[in-house]
Write a structure and sequence with these properties.
The structure holds 2 protein chains of 2 kinds. Chain A is mainly α. Chain A contains 6 helices and 2 strands. Chain A is globular and about 35 Å long. The chains are: A mainly alpha, B mainly beta.
Chain lengths: 157, 439
Protein backbone atom coordinates (compact mmCIF):
# COMPACT_ATOMS: atom_id res chain seq x y z
CA UNK A 1 0.00 0.00 0.00
CA UNK A 2 2.72 2.40 1.04
CA UNK A 3 4.69 1.94 -2.14
CA UNK A 4 1.67 2.80 -4.21
CA UNK A 5 1.28 6.03 -2.32
CA UNK A 6 4.92 7.02 -2.35
CA UNK A 7 5.27 6.78 -6.10
CA UNK A 8 2.53 9.20 -7.04
CA UNK A 9 3.55 11.38 -4.14
CA UNK A 10 7.08 11.54 -5.48
CA UNK A 11 6.02 12.33 -9.02
CA UNK A 12 3.50 14.77 -7.62
CA UNK A 13 6.03 16.63 -5.57
CA UNK A 14 8.53 16.65 -8.41
CA UNK A 15 5.85 18.16 -10.58
CA UNK A 16 5.03 20.75 -7.97
CA UNK A 17 8.70 21.63 -7.55
CA UNK A 18 9.14 21.85 -11.29
CA UNK A 19 6.15 24.18 -11.52
CA UNK A 20 7.56 26.28 -8.71
CA UNK A 21 10.86 26.57 -10.52
CA UNK A 22 9.15 27.52 -13.74
CA UNK A 23 6.96 30.10 -12.07
CA UNK A 24 9.91 31.53 -10.20
CA UNK A 25 12.02 31.90 -13.30
CA UNK A 26 9.11 33.25 -15.28
CA UNK A 27 7.87 35.76 -12.75
CA UNK A 28 10.45 38.53 -13.07
CA UNK A 29 10.06 38.42 -16.84
CA UNK A 30 6.32 39.15 -16.68
CA UNK A 31 6.30 41.82 -14.00
CA UNK A 32 9.43 43.70 -15.04
CA UNK A 33 8.59 43.67 -18.72
CA UNK A 34 7.58 47.21 -19.58
CA UNK A 35 4.72 47.10 -22.05
CA UNK A 36 4.43 49.39 -25.03
CA UNK A 37 3.53 52.45 -22.97
CA UNK A 38 6.28 55.01 -22.73
CA UNK A 39 4.44 57.80 -21.04
CA UNK A 40 6.01 60.74 -19.26
CA UNK A 41 4.81 59.16 -16.01
CA UNK A 42 7.68 56.68 -15.84
CA UNK A 43 6.55 53.65 -17.82
CA UNK A 44 4.79 50.44 -16.94
CA UNK A 45 6.68 49.54 -13.77
CA UNK A 46 6.06 52.93 -12.17
CA UNK A 47 2.43 52.88 -13.24
CA UNK A 48 2.02 49.42 -11.68
CA UNK A 49 3.50 50.63 -8.39
CA UNK A 50 1.25 53.68 -8.24
CA UNK A 51 -1.72 51.63 -9.42
CA UNK A 52 -1.27 49.16 -6.59
CA UNK A 53 -1.50 52.02 -4.11
CA UNK A 54 -4.72 53.25 -5.70
CA UNK A 55 -6.08 49.68 -5.63
CA UNK A 56 -5.36 49.35 -1.90
CA UNK A 57 -7.10 52.63 -1.12
CA UNK A 58 -10.02 52.56 -3.55
CA UNK A 59 -10.80 49.02 -4.66
CA UNK A 60 -9.65 46.44 -2.12
CA UNK A 61 -12.43 47.01 0.43
CA UNK A 62 -15.00 45.62 -2.02
CA UNK A 63 -13.06 43.61 -4.60
CA UNK A 64 -10.79 42.10 -1.87
CA UNK A 65 -7.03 41.60 -1.68
CA UNK A 66 -7.08 38.76 -4.24
CA UNK A 67 -9.46 40.70 -6.57
CA UNK A 68 -11.85 37.76 -6.56
CA UNK A 69 -14.67 39.93 -5.21
CA UNK A 70 -17.54 38.88 -2.94
CA UNK A 71 -20.05 36.26 -3.99
CA UNK A 72 -23.38 37.81 -4.99
CA UNK A 73 -22.17 41.34 -4.28
CA UNK A 74 -18.90 42.57 -5.74
CA UNK A 75 -17.69 41.00 -8.99
CA UNK A 76 -14.27 39.43 -9.47
CA UNK A 77 -11.66 41.36 -11.45
CA UNK A 78 -9.70 38.29 -12.44
CA UNK A 79 -9.76 37.13 -16.05
CA UNK A 80 -13.11 38.70 -16.91
CA UNK A 81 -13.93 40.38 -20.19
CA UNK A 82 -14.95 43.54 -18.33
CA UNK A 83 -11.42 43.99 -17.04
CA UNK A 84 -9.40 42.58 -19.93
CA UNK A 85 -11.63 43.82 -22.77
CA UNK A 86 -12.58 47.25 -24.11
CA UNK A 87 -10.65 49.95 -22.25
CA UNK A 88 -13.30 52.58 -22.87
CA UNK A 89 -16.02 50.54 -21.15
CA UNK A 90 -13.72 49.80 -18.25
CA UNK A 91 -12.71 53.43 -17.74
CA UNK A 92 -16.39 54.41 -17.80
CA UNK A 93 -17.20 51.88 -15.05
CA UNK A 94 -14.61 53.61 -12.87
CA UNK A 95 -15.87 57.10 -13.77
CA UNK A 96 -19.60 56.39 -13.45
CA UNK A 97 -19.80 53.47 -11.05
CA UNK A 98 -22.32 50.71 -11.66
CA UNK A 99 -24.94 48.46 -10.09
CA UNK A 100 -25.65 44.91 -11.08
CA UNK A 101 -23.51 42.86 -13.40
CA UNK A 102 -23.43 39.27 -14.57
CA UNK A 103 -20.04 37.62 -14.71
CA UNK A 104 -19.65 34.00 -15.80
CA UNK A 105 -23.32 33.26 -15.06
CA UNK A 106 -23.20 34.73 -11.54
CA UNK A 107 -25.14 37.87 -10.61
CA UNK A 108 -23.48 40.57 -8.55
CA UNK A 109 -25.71 43.17 -6.89
CA UNK A 110 -23.17 45.36 -5.11
CA UNK A 111 -23.27 49.11 -5.63
CA UNK A 112 -20.11 50.67 -7.01
CA UNK A 113 -19.86 54.40 -6.49
CA UNK A 114 -18.55 56.70 -9.25
CA UNK A 115 -14.83 57.36 -8.91
CA UNK A 116 -14.67 60.43 -11.16
CA UNK A 117 -12.76 62.26 -8.42
CA UNK A 118 -9.67 60.19 -9.28
CA UNK A 119 -7.24 61.87 -11.71
CA UNK A 120 -6.70 60.57 -15.24
CA UNK A 121 -3.31 59.30 -14.13
CA UNK A 122 -4.72 57.49 -11.06
CA UNK A 123 -7.38 55.77 -13.18
CA UNK A 124 -4.78 54.81 -15.79
CA UNK A 125 -2.47 53.46 -13.10
CA UNK A 126 -5.05 51.41 -11.23
CA UNK A 127 -6.47 49.90 -14.41
CA UNK A 128 -3.00 49.08 -15.67
CA UNK A 129 -2.31 47.45 -12.32
CA UNK A 130 -5.53 45.43 -12.28
CA UNK A 131 -5.14 44.38 -15.93
CA UNK A 132 -1.63 43.06 -15.17
CA UNK A 133 -2.01 41.54 -11.71
CA UNK A 134 -3.90 38.62 -10.13
CA UNK A 135 -3.08 36.48 -13.17
CA UNK A 136 -4.44 39.09 -15.61
CA UNK A 137 -2.53 40.22 -18.66
CA UNK A 138 -3.72 43.03 -20.91
CA UNK A 139 -2.47 46.28 -22.42
CA UNK A 140 -1.70 49.20 -20.13
CA UNK A 141 -4.11 52.12 -19.90
CA UNK A 142 -2.60 55.59 -20.35
CA UNK A 143 -3.64 58.87 -18.77
CA UNK A 144 -4.16 60.29 -22.27
CA UNK A 145 -6.66 57.51 -23.02
CA UNK A 146 -8.54 58.17 -19.78
CA UNK A 147 -8.60 61.90 -20.55
CA UNK A 148 -10.11 61.26 -24.00
CA UNK A 149 -12.73 58.86 -22.60
CA UNK A 150 -13.62 61.25 -19.79
CA UNK A 151 -14.12 64.07 -22.32
CA UNK A 152 -16.86 62.13 -24.12
CA UNK A 153 -18.33 60.51 -21.01
CA UNK A 154 -21.90 61.35 -20.09
CA UNK A 155 -22.56 60.01 -16.62
CA UNK A 156 -25.99 58.53 -16.01
CA UNK A 157 -28.15 60.48 -13.59
CA UNK B 1 25.40 11.43 8.02
CA UNK B 2 23.93 14.55 9.57
CA UNK B 3 23.52 15.93 6.09
CA UNK B 4 21.63 12.79 5.08
CA UNK B 5 19.30 13.07 8.08
CA UNK B 6 18.62 16.71 7.31
CA UNK B 7 17.81 15.85 3.73
CA UNK B 8 15.44 13.13 4.85
CA UNK B 9 13.75 15.64 7.15
CA UNK B 10 13.28 18.07 4.29
CA UNK B 11 11.91 15.32 2.05
CA UNK B 12 9.48 14.02 4.63
CA UNK B 13 8.31 17.55 5.37
CA UNK B 14 7.66 18.05 1.67
CA UNK B 15 5.91 14.75 1.21
CA UNK B 16 3.78 14.76 4.34
CA UNK B 17 1.07 17.05 2.99
CA UNK B 18 0.93 15.05 -0.23
CA UNK B 19 0.64 11.79 1.67
CA UNK B 20 -2.09 13.22 3.85
CA UNK B 21 -3.81 14.50 0.74
CA UNK B 22 -3.78 11.08 -0.85
CA UNK B 23 -5.08 9.39 2.30
CA UNK B 24 -7.91 11.90 2.45
CA UNK B 25 -8.76 11.25 -1.19
CA UNK B 26 -8.90 7.57 -0.33
CA UNK B 27 -11.28 8.24 2.51
CA UNK B 28 -13.56 10.31 0.33
CA UNK B 29 -13.64 7.55 -2.25
CA UNK B 30 -14.52 5.02 0.47
CA UNK B 31 -17.24 7.21 1.96
CA UNK B 32 -18.59 8.26 -1.43
CA UNK B 33 -21.07 5.46 -1.96
CA UNK B 34 -21.89 5.05 1.74
CA UNK B 35 -25.25 6.53 2.73
CA UNK B 36 -27.57 4.61 0.47
CA UNK B 37 -30.52 2.57 1.52
CA UNK B 38 -29.04 0.26 4.11
CA UNK B 39 -31.86 0.88 6.50
CA UNK B 40 -31.00 2.29 9.92
CA UNK B 41 -27.25 2.10 9.49
CA UNK B 42 -25.74 5.51 10.10
CA UNK B 43 -24.14 7.04 7.00
CA UNK B 44 -20.40 7.75 7.07
CA UNK B 45 -19.57 11.14 8.49
CA UNK B 46 -18.94 13.46 5.56
CA UNK B 47 -15.98 15.83 5.40
CA UNK B 48 -18.39 18.74 5.73
CA UNK B 49 -19.67 17.25 8.98
CA UNK B 50 -16.30 16.33 10.48
CA UNK B 51 -14.89 19.77 9.67
CA UNK B 52 -17.20 21.50 12.19
CA UNK B 53 -15.89 22.26 15.65
CA UNK B 54 -18.61 21.76 18.27
CA UNK B 55 -18.80 21.79 22.07
CA UNK B 56 -18.24 18.48 23.85
CA UNK B 57 -21.14 16.06 23.45
CA UNK B 58 -22.37 17.59 20.19
CA UNK B 59 -21.96 15.97 16.79
CA UNK B 60 -22.99 16.81 13.23
CA UNK B 61 -24.16 14.87 10.21
CA UNK B 62 -24.98 16.30 6.80
CA UNK B 63 -28.49 15.80 5.48
CA UNK B 64 -27.29 16.79 1.99
CA UNK B 65 -23.94 17.96 0.61
CA UNK B 66 -23.40 20.51 -2.16
CA UNK B 67 -27.07 20.67 -3.07
CA UNK B 68 -27.45 24.30 -4.21
CA UNK B 69 -27.85 27.78 -2.75
CA UNK B 70 -29.81 26.77 0.33
CA UNK B 71 -30.96 29.82 2.32
CA UNK B 72 -33.59 29.57 5.07
CA UNK B 73 -34.91 26.28 6.37
CA UNK B 74 -37.96 24.95 8.20
CA UNK B 75 -38.49 21.52 9.75
CA UNK B 76 -41.93 19.91 10.07
CA UNK B 77 -43.05 18.02 13.21
CA UNK B 78 -42.40 14.71 11.38
CA UNK B 79 -38.83 15.70 10.51
CA UNK B 80 -39.43 16.68 6.86
CA UNK B 81 -37.06 19.50 6.00
CA UNK B 82 -37.98 22.36 3.65
CA UNK B 83 -35.33 24.67 2.20
CA UNK B 84 -35.57 27.82 0.07
CA UNK B 85 -33.01 28.23 -2.69
CA UNK B 86 -31.45 31.47 -3.90
CA UNK B 87 -30.85 29.97 -7.32
CA UNK B 88 -33.12 27.45 -9.04
CA UNK B 89 -31.95 23.86 -9.10
CA UNK B 90 -33.48 21.82 -11.93
CA UNK B 91 -35.97 24.63 -12.29
CA UNK B 92 -37.15 24.44 -8.67
CA UNK B 93 -36.70 26.94 -5.85
CA UNK B 94 -37.92 24.95 -2.82
CA UNK B 95 -36.89 21.44 -1.83
CA UNK B 96 -38.35 18.98 0.65
CA UNK B 97 -35.94 16.45 2.16
CA UNK B 98 -36.73 13.42 4.21
CA UNK B 99 -34.49 10.88 5.88
CA UNK B 100 -36.86 7.90 5.84
CA UNK B 101 -34.40 5.26 7.05
CA UNK B 102 -32.93 7.29 9.89
CA UNK B 103 -29.33 7.19 8.72
CA UNK B 104 -29.01 10.97 8.74
CA UNK B 105 -28.97 11.42 4.95
CA UNK B 106 -31.90 12.70 2.91
CA UNK B 107 -33.15 9.78 0.79
CA UNK B 108 -36.44 11.28 -0.37
CA UNK B 109 -36.02 14.59 -2.19
CA UNK B 110 -38.69 16.61 -3.97
CA UNK B 111 -38.46 20.04 -5.61
CA UNK B 112 -41.26 22.53 -6.35
CA UNK B 113 -41.86 26.27 -6.67
CA UNK B 114 -40.35 28.16 -9.61
CA UNK B 115 -39.13 31.25 -7.75
CA UNK B 116 -35.86 31.98 -5.96
CA UNK B 117 -35.62 33.68 -2.58
CA UNK B 118 -34.75 33.36 1.09
CA UNK B 119 -37.77 33.05 3.41
CA UNK B 120 -38.99 29.65 4.63
CA UNK B 121 -41.22 28.88 7.60
CA UNK B 122 -43.88 26.43 8.73
CA UNK B 123 -46.90 27.64 10.66
CA UNK B 124 -50.36 26.30 11.34
CA UNK B 125 -50.35 23.58 8.65
CA UNK B 126 -48.80 25.74 5.92
CA UNK B 127 -45.35 26.18 4.42
CA UNK B 128 -44.48 29.86 3.88
CA UNK B 129 -41.92 30.91 1.26
CA UNK B 130 -40.72 34.27 -0.04
CA UNK B 131 -39.20 35.53 -3.24
CA UNK B 132 -37.51 38.94 -3.21
CA UNK B 133 -40.86 40.62 -3.98
CA UNK B 134 -43.61 38.30 -2.76
CA UNK B 135 -44.68 35.86 -0.05
CA UNK B 136 -46.50 32.59 -0.80
CA UNK B 137 -47.87 29.70 1.18
CA UNK B 138 -48.50 26.02 0.45
CA UNK B 139 -50.98 23.83 2.31
CA UNK B 140 -49.38 20.80 3.98
CA UNK B 141 -51.15 17.47 4.48
CA UNK B 142 -50.99 15.21 7.55
CA UNK B 143 -47.60 13.84 6.46
CA UNK B 144 -46.29 17.34 5.78
CA UNK B 145 -46.35 16.82 2.04
CA UNK B 146 -47.23 19.84 -0.06
CA UNK B 147 -50.83 19.42 -1.22
CA UNK B 148 -50.62 21.52 -4.37
CA UNK B 149 -46.97 22.20 -5.22
CA UNK B 150 -47.78 24.03 -8.48
CA UNK B 151 -50.38 26.38 -7.04
CA UNK B 152 -49.20 28.33 -4.01
CA UNK B 153 -51.43 31.02 -2.53
CA UNK B 154 -49.97 34.50 -3.03
CA UNK B 155 -50.19 36.32 0.29
CA UNK B 156 -48.10 39.44 -0.30
CA UNK B 157 -47.09 41.09 -3.54
CA UNK B 158 -45.25 44.16 -4.85
CA UNK B 159 -42.51 44.50 -2.22
CA UNK B 160 -39.54 46.63 -3.20
CA UNK B 161 -36.47 44.79 -4.44
CA UNK B 162 -33.71 47.06 -5.70
CA UNK B 163 -30.75 44.71 -5.75
CA UNK B 164 -29.42 45.67 -2.36
CA UNK B 165 -30.65 43.90 0.80
CA UNK B 166 -33.36 42.37 -1.35
CA UNK B 167 -33.95 39.15 0.64
CA UNK B 168 -37.43 39.10 2.18
CA UNK B 169 -36.79 37.03 5.28
CA UNK B 170 -39.97 36.05 7.14
CA UNK B 171 -41.15 34.99 10.59
CA UNK B 172 -44.57 33.94 11.92
CA UNK B 173 -46.19 33.55 15.29
CA UNK B 174 -49.20 31.53 16.45
CA UNK B 175 -51.45 34.61 16.34
CA UNK B 176 -51.55 34.64 12.54
CA UNK B 177 -48.97 37.41 12.14
CA UNK B 178 -46.59 37.28 9.20
CA UNK B 179 -43.51 39.48 9.63
CA UNK B 180 -41.51 40.37 6.52
CA UNK B 181 -38.16 42.13 6.38
CA UNK B 182 -37.95 44.78 3.70
CA UNK B 183 -34.28 45.77 3.65
CA UNK B 184 -33.13 49.27 2.74
CA UNK B 185 -31.77 49.48 -0.78
CA UNK B 186 -28.91 51.58 0.53
CA UNK B 187 -25.94 51.55 2.89
CA UNK B 188 -26.56 54.78 4.78
CA UNK B 189 -29.30 56.62 2.84
CA UNK B 190 -26.83 58.92 1.10
CA UNK B 191 -28.15 60.91 -1.86
CA UNK B 192 -25.81 58.75 -3.93
CA UNK B 193 -25.36 55.33 -2.33
CA UNK B 194 -21.89 54.46 -1.05
CA UNK B 195 -20.35 57.57 -2.61
CA UNK B 196 -17.75 59.60 -0.76
CA UNK B 197 -18.97 63.11 -0.02
CA UNK B 198 -22.63 62.41 -0.82
CA UNK B 199 -24.80 63.68 2.07
CA UNK B 200 -27.31 61.67 4.07
CA UNK B 201 -30.94 62.40 3.16
CA UNK B 202 -33.10 63.74 5.97
CA UNK B 203 -35.72 62.50 6.31
CA UNK B 204 -34.54 59.33 4.66
CA UNK B 205 -37.14 58.65 1.90
CA UNK B 206 -36.37 54.93 1.90
CA UNK B 207 -38.02 54.42 5.29
CA UNK B 208 -41.55 54.78 3.85
CA UNK B 209 -41.30 51.51 2.00
CA UNK B 210 -38.18 49.71 3.26
CA UNK B 211 -35.62 49.69 6.06
CA UNK B 212 -37.92 47.91 8.48
CA UNK B 213 -40.18 44.98 9.30
CA UNK B 214 -43.67 44.92 7.82
CA UNK B 215 -46.60 43.04 9.32
CA UNK B 216 -49.10 41.12 7.19
CA UNK B 217 -51.80 38.53 7.90
CA UNK B 218 -50.69 34.93 7.58
CA UNK B 219 -53.94 33.84 5.88
CA UNK B 220 -54.99 36.73 3.62
CA UNK B 221 -54.36 36.74 -0.13
CA UNK B 222 -52.88 39.51 -2.29
CA UNK B 223 -51.80 41.87 0.45
CA UNK B 224 -49.69 44.90 -0.49
CA UNK B 225 -47.97 47.83 1.20
CA UNK B 226 -51.46 49.35 1.43
CA UNK B 227 -52.96 46.51 3.44
CA UNK B 228 -49.84 45.70 5.44
CA UNK B 229 -48.48 47.72 8.33
CA UNK B 230 -44.98 48.94 9.10
CA UNK B 231 -44.20 47.11 12.33
CA UNK B 232 -40.70 48.43 13.02
CA UNK B 233 -38.46 50.97 11.27
CA UNK B 234 -34.86 52.12 11.25
CA UNK B 235 -33.51 48.67 10.43
CA UNK B 236 -31.02 48.69 7.57
CA UNK B 237 -31.42 45.03 6.74
CA UNK B 238 -32.56 41.95 8.62
CA UNK B 239 -32.06 38.40 7.41
CA UNK B 240 -32.19 36.51 10.72
CA UNK B 241 -35.46 36.99 12.61
CA UNK B 242 -37.46 34.72 14.88
CA UNK B 243 -40.56 34.89 17.08
CA UNK B 244 -39.51 34.23 20.67
CA UNK B 245 -42.25 32.14 22.33
CA UNK B 246 -40.80 32.78 25.80
CA UNK B 247 -41.26 36.56 25.52
CA UNK B 248 -44.00 36.54 22.87
CA UNK B 249 -42.08 39.06 20.82
CA UNK B 250 -40.12 39.34 17.60
CA UNK B 251 -36.33 39.39 17.74
CA UNK B 252 -34.21 40.43 14.77
CA UNK B 253 -30.55 40.63 13.84
CA UNK B 254 -29.60 43.75 11.90
CA UNK B 255 -26.85 43.86 9.29
CA UNK B 256 -25.06 47.05 10.31
CA UNK B 257 -23.77 49.64 7.86
CA UNK B 258 -20.58 49.28 5.82
CA UNK B 259 -17.64 51.43 4.79
CA UNK B 260 -16.99 53.85 7.63
CA UNK B 261 -13.35 54.12 6.57
CA UNK B 262 -13.95 54.17 2.81
CA UNK B 263 -16.39 57.04 3.13
CA UNK B 264 -14.80 58.85 6.11
CA UNK B 265 -11.09 57.98 6.23
CA UNK B 266 -10.37 61.02 8.41
CA UNK B 267 -12.56 59.66 11.23
CA UNK B 268 -12.02 55.90 11.15
CA UNK B 269 -8.94 53.92 10.13
CA UNK B 270 -9.22 50.54 8.46
CA UNK B 271 -8.90 48.67 11.77
CA UNK B 272 -11.72 50.63 13.45
CA UNK B 273 -13.82 50.33 10.32
CA UNK B 274 -13.39 46.54 10.39
CA UNK B 275 -14.86 46.40 13.91
CA UNK B 276 -17.57 49.06 13.67
CA UNK B 277 -20.49 49.27 13.89
CA UNK B 278 -21.96 46.38 15.91
CA UNK B 279 -24.23 43.78 14.36
CA UNK B 280 -27.20 44.28 16.70
CA UNK B 281 -29.92 42.08 18.08
CA UNK B 282 -33.16 43.98 18.76
CA UNK B 283 -36.40 43.00 20.45
CA UNK B 284 -39.22 44.61 18.49
CA UNK B 285 -42.74 45.74 19.22
CA UNK B 286 -45.27 47.64 17.11
CA UNK B 287 -43.69 51.04 16.41
CA UNK B 288 -40.10 50.12 17.27
CA UNK B 289 -37.44 52.36 15.77
CA UNK B 290 -33.85 51.16 15.67
CA UNK B 291 -32.37 54.37 14.28
CA UNK B 292 -30.93 53.59 10.83
CA UNK B 293 -29.69 55.57 8.90
CA UNK B 294 -29.19 58.42 11.37
CA UNK B 295 -27.23 56.46 13.96
CA UNK B 296 -25.18 53.33 14.37
CA UNK B 297 -24.31 51.43 17.52
CA UNK B 298 -20.68 51.55 18.72
CA UNK B 299 -20.13 48.45 20.85
CA UNK B 300 -16.93 49.85 22.40
CA UNK B 301 -18.44 53.15 23.56
CA UNK B 302 -21.78 51.40 24.22
CA UNK B 303 -23.52 54.32 22.56
CA UNK B 304 -25.70 55.23 19.62
CA UNK B 305 -23.42 57.37 17.47
CA UNK B 306 -24.56 60.00 14.99
CA UNK B 307 -23.88 58.68 11.48
CA UNK B 308 -21.14 60.63 9.67
CA UNK B 309 -23.45 61.29 6.69
CA UNK B 310 -25.57 63.30 9.15
CA UNK B 311 -22.73 65.26 10.70
CA UNK B 312 -21.30 62.63 13.04
CA UNK B 313 -17.63 62.61 14.03
CA UNK B 314 -17.46 59.19 15.68
CA UNK B 315 -18.17 60.66 19.13
CA UNK B 316 -21.40 62.68 18.91
CA UNK B 317 -24.31 60.62 20.16
CA UNK B 318 -27.85 60.76 18.76
CA UNK B 319 -30.96 58.69 18.31
CA UNK B 320 -32.65 59.43 21.61
CA UNK B 321 -35.88 58.14 20.06
CA UNK B 322 -34.21 54.93 18.86
CA UNK B 323 -34.07 51.83 20.99
CA UNK B 324 -30.88 50.16 22.18
CA UNK B 325 -29.87 46.72 21.00
CA UNK B 326 -30.30 43.84 23.44
CA UNK B 327 -26.99 42.35 22.26
CA UNK B 328 -24.19 43.93 20.20
CA UNK B 329 -21.99 41.56 18.20
CA UNK B 330 -18.78 42.41 16.30
CA UNK B 331 -19.14 44.34 13.05
CA UNK B 332 -19.72 43.01 9.52
CA UNK B 333 -20.18 39.34 10.50
CA UNK B 334 -23.54 39.26 8.68
CA UNK B 335 -26.09 37.47 10.90
CA UNK B 336 -28.30 35.53 8.48
CA UNK B 337 -30.12 33.13 10.79
CA UNK B 338 -31.73 33.48 14.23
CA UNK B 339 -33.32 30.67 16.23
CA UNK B 340 -34.62 30.56 19.78
CA UNK B 341 -34.05 27.07 21.10
CA UNK B 342 -37.12 25.48 22.66
CA UNK B 343 -36.06 21.82 22.47
CA UNK B 344 -35.27 19.39 25.27
CA UNK B 345 -32.35 17.55 23.68
CA UNK B 346 -29.57 20.09 24.36
CA UNK B 347 -28.29 20.80 27.90
CA UNK B 348 -30.40 23.09 30.09
CA UNK B 349 -28.38 26.24 29.44
CA UNK B 350 -29.50 26.28 25.79
CA UNK B 351 -33.21 26.39 26.61
CA UNK B 352 -34.81 29.59 25.32
CA UNK B 353 -31.41 30.95 24.30
CA UNK B 354 -30.61 32.23 20.81
CA UNK B 355 -28.53 30.63 18.08
CA UNK B 356 -27.26 33.04 15.43
CA UNK B 357 -25.75 31.95 12.11
CA UNK B 358 -23.11 34.45 11.00
CA UNK B 359 -22.63 34.29 7.25
CA UNK B 360 -19.17 35.89 7.58
CA UNK B 361 -17.76 39.26 6.65
CA UNK B 362 -16.48 40.93 3.50
CA UNK B 363 -16.32 44.54 4.64
CA UNK B 364 -13.42 44.00 7.06
CA UNK B 365 -10.77 44.05 4.29
CA UNK B 366 -7.85 44.75 4.45
CA UNK B 367 -8.21 43.32 7.98
CA UNK B 368 -8.77 39.54 8.09
CA UNK B 369 -12.37 38.48 7.45
CA UNK B 370 -14.34 36.89 10.31
CA UNK B 371 -17.50 35.02 11.14
CA UNK B 372 -18.51 31.82 9.33
CA UNK B 373 -19.83 30.35 12.58
CA UNK B 374 -22.96 29.76 14.63
CA UNK B 375 -23.04 31.60 17.93
CA UNK B 376 -25.06 30.92 21.07
CA UNK B 377 -26.39 33.76 23.23
CA UNK B 378 -27.78 32.54 26.56
CA UNK B 379 -31.11 34.04 27.72
CA UNK B 380 -32.70 34.11 31.16
CA UNK B 381 -36.22 35.35 31.86
CA UNK B 382 -36.51 36.66 28.32
CA UNK B 383 -33.34 38.75 28.51
CA UNK B 384 -29.82 38.03 27.24
CA UNK B 385 -27.84 36.68 30.18
CA UNK B 386 -24.07 36.36 30.04
CA UNK B 387 -21.69 36.50 27.09
CA UNK B 388 -22.30 34.90 23.74
CA UNK B 389 -20.04 32.06 22.69
CA UNK B 390 -19.15 30.40 19.40
CA UNK B 391 -21.22 27.21 19.20
CA UNK B 392 -20.39 25.70 15.80
CA UNK B 393 -17.13 26.85 14.29
CA UNK B 394 -14.85 26.25 11.31
CA UNK B 395 -17.41 26.37 8.52
CA UNK B 396 -14.57 28.26 6.80
CA UNK B 397 -12.27 25.23 6.76
CA UNK B 398 -9.41 26.94 8.64
CA UNK B 399 -8.07 30.29 9.83
CA UNK B 400 -6.40 31.17 6.52
CA UNK B 401 -9.55 30.54 4.55
CA UNK B 402 -11.55 32.61 7.03
CA UNK B 403 -9.05 35.49 6.85
CA UNK B 404 -9.20 35.64 3.04
CA UNK B 405 -12.94 35.07 2.89
CA UNK B 406 -12.36 32.17 0.45
CA UNK B 407 -14.19 29.74 2.70
CA UNK B 408 -15.65 26.26 2.31
CA UNK B 409 -19.11 27.11 3.71
CA UNK B 410 -21.12 30.13 4.89
CA UNK B 411 -23.83 29.47 7.49
CA UNK B 412 -27.18 31.01 6.63
CA UNK B 413 -30.41 29.38 7.84
CA UNK B 414 -31.27 27.80 11.20
CA UNK B 415 -34.13 25.57 12.29
CA UNK B 416 -35.00 23.20 15.09
CA UNK B 417 -36.08 19.63 14.42
CA UNK B 418 -38.80 17.75 16.33
CA UNK B 419 -36.16 15.77 18.26
CA UNK B 420 -34.48 18.98 19.47
CA UNK B 421 -31.55 18.82 17.05
CA UNK B 422 -30.78 21.98 15.11
CA UNK B 423 -30.21 22.36 11.37
CA UNK B 424 -27.79 24.79 9.71
CA UNK B 425 -27.71 25.59 5.99
CA UNK B 426 -24.81 26.85 3.88
CA UNK B 427 -25.74 29.00 0.89
CA UNK B 428 -22.51 28.75 -1.08
CA UNK B 429 -22.50 25.04 -1.86
CA UNK B 430 -25.72 23.92 -0.26
CA UNK B 431 -24.73 21.70 2.60
CA UNK B 432 -27.19 21.15 5.45
CA UNK B 433 -25.94 20.02 8.83
CA UNK B 434 -27.98 18.43 11.59
CA UNK B 435 -26.36 19.04 14.96
CA UNK B 436 -27.33 16.79 17.87
CA UNK B 437 -26.34 16.29 21.47
CA UNK B 438 -25.74 13.06 23.33
CA UNK B 439 -24.60 12.88 26.96
Amino acid sequence: MKKHIVFPALTGSLFVMAMLLISQTKKPATTAKPAASKSASGGMAASMTRGKQVYLEQCLACHQADALGVSGMNPPLVKTKFVLGDKSKLVKIVLNGMTGIEVEGEDYHGVMAPHSDLTDQQIADVLTYVRNSFGNKAKAVTAAEVKAIRATNTPAK
Amino acid sequence: MQQFINRMKVISRRFLPLLTGLCLTGLIACAGDGGGDKGGKPAKVSDAASQLKLPSGFSAVTLVDSFGRTRHIAVAPNGAVFVKLQKLKNGKGIYRFQDTNGNGKADKIMGFGTFTGTGMAISNGYLYASSDEEVFRYKLDGNYNVVNPDKPEKLVTGLLSRHEHEAKAIALNDKGDLFVNIGAYSNACQLQDRTKGSPGQKPCPILDSAGGIWLFKADQLNQTYGTGKRYATGLRNVVGLNWNTATNSLFVMQHGRDQLHDLFPDIWDTKQSAELPAECMYELHQGSNCGWPYIFYDQFQHKKILAPEYGGDGKKTAGEDAQDPVVAFPGHLAPNGLLFYTGNQFPEKYKNGAFIAFHGSWNRAPEPQKGYFVVFQPFKDGKPSGDWEVFADNFSGGPEKAASGRVNYRPCGLAQGPDGSIYVTDDTKGTIWKISYKK
